[in-house]
Amino acid sequence: MDSDLSPQDKKDLDKFIKFFALKTVQVIVQARLGEKICTRSSSSPTGSDWFNLAIKDIPEVTHEAKKALAGQLPGIGRSMCVEISLKTSEGDSMELETWCLEMNEKCDKDIKVSYTVYNRLSVLLKSLLAITRVTPAYKLSRKQGHDYVILYRIYFGEVQLSGLGEGFQTVRVGVVGTPVGTVTLSCAYRTNLAFMSNRQFERSAPIMGIIVDHFVDPPCSSQRPANMGQPCNYRAPDEEDGGTFAGVQDSQEVCTTSFSTSPPSQLYTSRLSYQPPALTGAAELCHPAGNPNQVLHAGKEGGVVLVPAQPPHGADAHITVEHAPNTPSSSGDDDGLSQSAEGRRDEGRRSVSPADPVESLSAFTRKVGAFVNKPSTQITAASLDLPFAAFAPRGLDSEENDPMVQPPDSPPCPSPLQASLHSQGSEGSGQQDDFVMVDFRPAFSKDDLLPMDLGTFYREFQNPPQLASLSLHISSQSMADDLDSLPEKLRVYEKNIDEFDAFVDMLQ
Amino acid sequence: MNCRSEVLEVTVEARQVEEAMLALLHTILLHRSTGKFHYKKEGTYSIGTVGTLDFDCDFIDFTFVRVSSEELDRVIRKAVSEFKDALSNSGSDGMGQISLEFYQKKKSRWPFSDECIPWEVWSIKVNVVNLANEQERQICREKVGEKLGEKVINVVEVINRHEYLPKMPTQSEVDNVFDTSLKDVQPYLYKITYQITDSLGTSVSTTMRRLIKDTLAL
Q: Which of A305, A316, A459, A480 has minimal Cβ neighbours within 10 Å of its Cβ?
């Protein structure tokens, strides 16, 4: 296979690939240091700038890379990988991305090693410089500090992408064909950046004791296990405070930590995508799984926080979360409904068509309706704090809970009112038969089990039954009692006439 | 030889036009610049070193890498600034296109002037939007940053196809392939032009062709 390649070319090619691998590691790690990189152009070649690019060599990084390579070169089935992970001050960690330098067997025999391959490797390094600023980990790394640090780990062999979570994306930086194979450089990066805390697990049964050992041995020491990462903070070797995290690999498998500034009920999986999906429309509002346009800002207010970007098109963050209980928007709906129902009652019978905005909101919120507190089976009238609760018929339990139907402090009604109520009471009883209780059905919900929709709900509340307390009160006393107590009542009423006037005003 | 043509499209707010254009143009030029050639005897040459620089945008959540050359940066900024001014003066629609064209010069006999043969043209279409409030601007900031990231990936993908590139020239031919006017880096010969589309978007009523690099001057 190499018979076409002269020994000099072969030697050159090996050297190119070796130094390309070392420079690749340098570029990646330096891009995650958290600082802006600046190197100077020089018109006179210095001879030490491989690929005609000014890329500094951090000695520790070179050492780690050489250690990982152990004298080998990336080849077919032997990839060089740089794994970038994040570690918080509490000890939680997460793999962010894995850069892979691979070789496949597709050879380009005709290519000139010393010229074309070299120049193309140079272009590939430039592409790597550009792409390292584009992946999500870059922004995270620029904000690292007290709350979290970015770590790197170099390994050689099989590519391991399982730590990146579900839905990781891959971006190919570039390829360069050589006579011995095609060099491919790519990056697989995590998109699912929400993860839950594993601290509860740590307290109960530490998987591996999290070694809070910030003072690591100098890199030349061989005691550090292979799976530990190095911090992407370049300091002089004797000042290193690397995050030694022997437990990282295992703790990642166990569970995860949530980073969010939103209240827990509004947590949702974040997904970052660098593919060009059809995300540009208002369709994003309907994505239940998360906000594709989420941007990460970590460490701003202390602690690693995953600050979701404002959902697109100014939509309220609450609304993009489906099935979120007790969100503020839903309580607003309550008020709207109770007010509208009250209006309807005042106006008498009126056919009501379901309000479209309210129905659309039903797709987003699901909560206990305004007129329902508990299932009727669970209510005993005595348990309710209501006047005349003992007289409440069973069938009207839900109505009892309704503050609209049962005002909490209803003053005793004057007799004319009573009389009118009594007359209506007889009608009300008939109406009560028509009245179908909306038992523990959430308002505005689409209930697939029963054909209860908003329109039905409104229609049923068109004709509310009589105030149970008043009708019962009347029925429990005879007319004779009424007449006997009348003079006394009149005296009381006259005394409290102002109160009644105010009450009447309130009713108007 | 066919000229390779690539089109990138971005939608930005007015104040983001400059940085978005700089990001894309610099990313392309990073890949299309080499160190300065130093020719030695016997037809060999050595190549200088290209430094790089991270640039954080102010109006976009984005950082891009550019060649560490103040001269080149000045030239690009000037072109982008003219484009931005033309765009803002043109009308309410705010659509335009800036093109970065790499070409080779082919010397012709006198009295004919040298021919410029493009081998790669990058067209960046810009659509300027006006946003109503700060919240939308914040969203735009982040979204444009992500879009620019996608465009950088597109650029890298095209460049790494390793399609036609001019052959490395001899010393006498180097000015036909490379722009040797800069002190520290040597990009391929390029020119930047722009067009502003009118509000109808159908025809180009205003075409301004400014040659930043006046390569046709004899």
A: A480
ipTM of this predicted complex? 0.90
Domain extent listing, chain A: 7-189
Mean pLDDT, residues A362-376 = 42
Q: Over the stretch A16-26, which tens digit does the pLDDT of each residue have?
A: 999 999 999 99
Task: Return the residue in A41, A53, A122 with the most chain B beta carbons within 10 A, the one to mutate for interface testing.
Answer: A41
Angle at A175 between CA A170 and CA A177, to 5 degrees: 150
Which range marks the domain in which residue B98 is found? 4-204
Task: Say if B65 falls within a structural domain.
Answer: yes
Q: E strands within B23-70?
A: 33-35, 37-39, 45-47, 52-56, 63-67
When scoring B156, B158, B178, B184 by the number of chain A Cβ atoms within 10 A, the one with the most, hence best to mutate, is B156
Over residues A467-499, the pLDDT tens digits come to 766 655 555 556 777 788 888 888 888 888 888
Query: pLDDT band at A255, cuts 50/70/90?
Result: very low
CA torsion A100→A101→A102→A107, rounded to 10°?
150
Q: How many domains does chain B have?
A: 1
Asked whether residue B130 is domain-assigned, the answer is: yes
Residue B123 lies in a domain: yes
CB < 8 Å to B46, chain A: 45
Total-model pTM: 0.58
Does A130 contact B143 at a Cβ distance shorter than 8 Å? no
Chain A residue closest in CA terms to B33: A123
Does some domain include residue B213?
A: no
Nearest to B48 among A45, A124, A310 (CB): A45
A7-189 homologous superfamily: HORMA domain (3.30.900.10)
Alpha carbon B61 to chain centroid, angstroms:
21
